[in-house]
Amino acid sequence: MKILVADDHPLFRDALELSIRQAWPDAEVGCIGSLLELPVLPNSDDGAPVTVFRYDLIVLDWRMPGAEGSDPISVLRRLGVQGPVAVVTGAEDALTALEVLRCGAEAFLPKTTPRRILAQALRLVAEGGSFVPKCVALDLMQMTDLSLDIDEAEEEEGPSPEGEGATSSPLTDRERQVLSMLATGATNKEIGRHLSLQEVTVKLHTRRILRKLGARNRTDAVRRAQQAGLLSRILNEASP
């Protein structure tokens, strides 16, 4: 059995390797701290790698060096690395889980997952299954707006709610970052590239910003944020 462990935090990577070796004593385990450590293979005429490295299990941190401007699973596939992927990450939110699963991972596991549960989940993935913690799965189920057409809903016109410029709840740090880029007129693709996010994640953040600001569309959201002084505070905080 061949297993690849990719995590840029040495202590966690060592602990993860130890757990894996205890679960699979006879496994061949390779560990890397950056995707840049993987060999770059020549491609065929159709762009596919000539050689393919197949693993029975790939345990992957989500924010990895060498995956800037893309997601780490896409980088692995471009480099010819194949096998079921279990993402073990410090993030625990449903948006990150959605991004991870949409990119092709079989499992989403926060680093706070108990060791025993982690071992069972990794074994399940290696055997062809998938895994998401119950709390994350419930959060995903509550995101009912995922069944809507996000692009149409973003631009939906209607009467402005009362409370001009007020937010129904505070913006998260990521939402503030997205809002600051919306103010520049950046597209979802440009925002995603700058913040290392998938476009669908940018859209979801934008939806939440619109809802919190009571805005009809992006332009209205920026206007409301300016009137409330929110945008100037965000830009001042971002300044060195």
TrEMBL record:
Residues 152-173 are annotated as: Disordered. SUPFAM superfamilies: C-terminal effector domain of the bipartite response regulators, CheY-like. Residues 2-126 form the Response regulatory domain. It holds the Pfam family GerE. Residues 160-170 have a biased composition (Low complexity). Keywords: DNA-binding, Phosphoprotein. The modification 4-aspartylphosphate is found at residue 61. Residues 164-229 form the HTH luxR-type domain. It comes from the Bacteria. One of its GO terms (biological process) is phosphorelay signal transduction system. This is Two component transcriptional regulator, LuxR family. It comes from Azospirillum oryzae.
